[in-house]
């Protein structure tokens, strides 16, 4: 996959350009001396337990506390990390890993095969309430220690995406002693083998990490040996875009993620800064449509929504046009991406009207109605994700023009998640991250924790199961293309734009990198004096 995003068009609104210009007129104060790095981070933190967190943007923080069995490079090459080698046998149902013998957890616990087994047992235990790892591991929930440094993962069915999944922070290896000691409070005491040790967490304010001086088992793909050069790493939680930008411009942070599109191009020309667009593989940024709730239980309504929205206009309104739009479930560059779906739902208000008329809807004054009920859409969005709020507001503008009454509800994360599970929404924006096409299973396989759309289709489910267990790449690609066609024909998913974390950094901060999936890593970063 291409590690650079090449299309960042669009300019700031006039007022925002003036604001940036005002910043640029004042010299940026010298950054704090020493090796303490501060990152302005858009996302709040629900838990630092990688197995349980429901927030994608917590995973990059975990990526600096924990290590994984394998390290997956940005171009999806599977390379050693805690495991030095592996073998796949028994028709893809048995994975045997040889482990490093020189690794110690932050609490002094030795890393070995028993530690890996303890992690698998923890994930498989329903009391742990694991989220992403369950869908990622699929049929591979059993681990067995062959000897002290050899572990086997046993699958009930072939699972070709396992190695890619093992390289994500969701399957980071946690200290078995910490798992036993802290139980449900594990997320407040994250203990890994990574380059940084957890120091403190202040809710809605910061996560502070310090250098692990004993760290000497870096992933070989990074070409770096030894502990980090920076002494501490602080993720300063700043959900408000303007505040995050202001702090960065004032020299109060060395980097910021999720740079608002309105600022991205204006900052590009400033030599004091560097830019790192981090592509996030998976389903991109999309809107899920609820097939289990009126009125989006009507496929004609779902298709009308798709035709009524100009995605280029949405991205322009929501992000100053910096992101390439998306028209397919799987992002470009991923295995299974299907270019034939690109033109399935062009912006066509007339076709939207035809869908509704054909399904018995009638226009009454400004809004569509059917059987005495107005076409009202409940658009739920996480209140602390301004990018999502802007997408909802931009779509609301188009849909109201099309005669649909859109009611946006900004919700706290917990309320949004509970409402999603209960199906208490018509539309909701989200992202789903994965390095393998099987990521789509998470929202379309009944029983998965993100199965919110309530869409049922036996053919789709059969294709998703087939894709999960298929090792022949050509057959696998064809299977996921068929699955995506069914998804798009049902109109239960509306791709909006490709998912890219626009990071802006001080030019003094070098070496920030990321693993496949777009998980930032500061273990090899340096900060100039």
From TrEMBL:
MF annotations from Gene Ontology: peptide transmembrane transporter activity
BP GO annotations: peptide transport
GO CC term (a single one): ATP-binding cassette (ABC) transporter complex
Subcellular location: Periplasm
Keyword Transport found: yes
Region forming the signal peptide: 1-32
Main location: periplasm
Domain Solute-binding protein family: 77-437
Keywords: Signal, Transport
Pfam families: SBP_bac_5
Origin superkingdom: Bacteria
UniProt similarity note: Belongs to the bacterial solute-binding protein 5 family.
Annotated protein name in UniProt: Solute-binding protein family 5 domain-containing protein
Protein's organism: Bradyrhizobium manausense
Species lineage: Bacteria, Pseudomonadati, Pseudomonadota, Alphaproteobacteria, Hyphomicrobiales
């Amino acid at each position: 996959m291409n590690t650079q995003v090449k299309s960042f068009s669009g300019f700031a609104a006039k007022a925002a350009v003036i604001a940036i210009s005002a910043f640029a007129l004042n010299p940026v104060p010298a950054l704090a001396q020493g090796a303490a790095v501060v990152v302005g981070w858009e996302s709040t933190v629900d838990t630092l337990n990688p197995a349980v967190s429901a927030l994608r943007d917590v995973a990059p923080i975990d990526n600096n506390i924990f290590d994984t069995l394998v390290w997956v490079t940005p171009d999806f090459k599977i390379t050693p990390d805690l495991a030095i080698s592996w073998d796949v046998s028994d028709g893809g149902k048995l994975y045997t890993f040889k482990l490093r013998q020189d690794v110690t957890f932050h609490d002094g616990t030795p890393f070995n095969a028993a530690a890996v087994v303890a992690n698998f047992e923890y994930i498989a235990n329903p009391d742990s309430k694991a989220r992403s790892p369950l869908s990622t591991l699929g049929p591979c929930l059993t681990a067995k220690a062959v000897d002290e440094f050899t572990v086997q993962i046993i699958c009930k069915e072939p699972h070709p995406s396992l190695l890619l999944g093992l390289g994500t922070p969701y399957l980071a290896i946690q200290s078995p002693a910490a798992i036993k000691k802290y139980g449900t409070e594990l997320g407040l005491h994250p203990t890994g083998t990574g380059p940084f040790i957890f120091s403190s967490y202040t809710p809605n304010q910061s996560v502070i990490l310090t250098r692990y001086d004993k760290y000497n088992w870096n992933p070989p793909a990074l070409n770096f040996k030894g502990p980090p050069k920076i002494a501490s790493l602080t993720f300063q939680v700043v959900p408000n875009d303007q505040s995050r930008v202001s702090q960065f411009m004032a020299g109060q942070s060395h980097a910021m993620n999720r740079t608002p599109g309105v600022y991205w191009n204006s900052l590009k020309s400033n030599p004091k800064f560097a830019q790192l667009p981090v592509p996030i593989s998976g389903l991109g940024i999309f809107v899920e449509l609820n097939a289990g709730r009126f009125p989006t239980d009507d496929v004609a309504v779902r298709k009308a929504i798709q035709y009524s929205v100009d995605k280029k206009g949405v991205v322009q309104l929501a992000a100053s046009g910096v992101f390439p739009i998306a028209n397919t479930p799987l992002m470009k560059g991923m295995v299974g991406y299907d270019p034939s779906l690109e033109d399935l739902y062009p912006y066509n208000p007339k076709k939207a009207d035809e869908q509704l008329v054909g399904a018995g809807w009638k226009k009454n004054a400004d809004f569509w109605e059917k059987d005495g009920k107005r076409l009202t859409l409940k658009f739920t969005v996480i209140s602390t994700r301004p990018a999502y709020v802007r997408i909802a507001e931009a779509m609301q503008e188009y849909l109201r023009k099309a005669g649909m009454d859109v009611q946006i509800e900004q919700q706290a994360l917990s309320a949004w998640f509970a409402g999603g599970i209960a199906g208490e929404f018509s539309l909701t924006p989200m992202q789903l991250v994965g390095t393998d096409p099987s990521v789509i299973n998470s929202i379309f396989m009944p029983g998965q924790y993100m199965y919110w759309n309530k869409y049922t289709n036996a053919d789709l489910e059969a294709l998703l199961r087939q894709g999960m267990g298929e090792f022949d790449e050509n057959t696998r690609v064809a299977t996921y293309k068929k699955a995506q066609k069914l998804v798009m024909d049902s109109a239960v998913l509306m791709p909006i734009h490709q998912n890219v974390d626009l990071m802006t950094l001080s030019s003094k901060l070098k070496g920030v990198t990321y693993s496949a999936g777009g998980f930032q890593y500061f273990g090899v970063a340096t900060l100039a004096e």
